[in-house]
Amino acid sequence: MSIRLVLDVSALHGYANVDTALAVGELIREIREGGNHDQVGIPASGFLAAYTTTNDAGRALLANLVADVELARLRQDPHQSMFAILPLTSADVTDTGDLELSWPGRGQAIIEALRHDAVLATFEPREEASPRLDIVDLGGGSAEDTGWNVTDPA
Amino acid sequence: MSMKRVTITVPDDVAQRLEGVENVSAFFTEAVRAQDKMLRTEALLHAAEGDDVPQERREQVRAHLRGQLARAEARKAARRLDDAQATMRAADHRQAA
Question: What's the mean pLDDT in A138-144?
Answer without folding.
Answer: 60
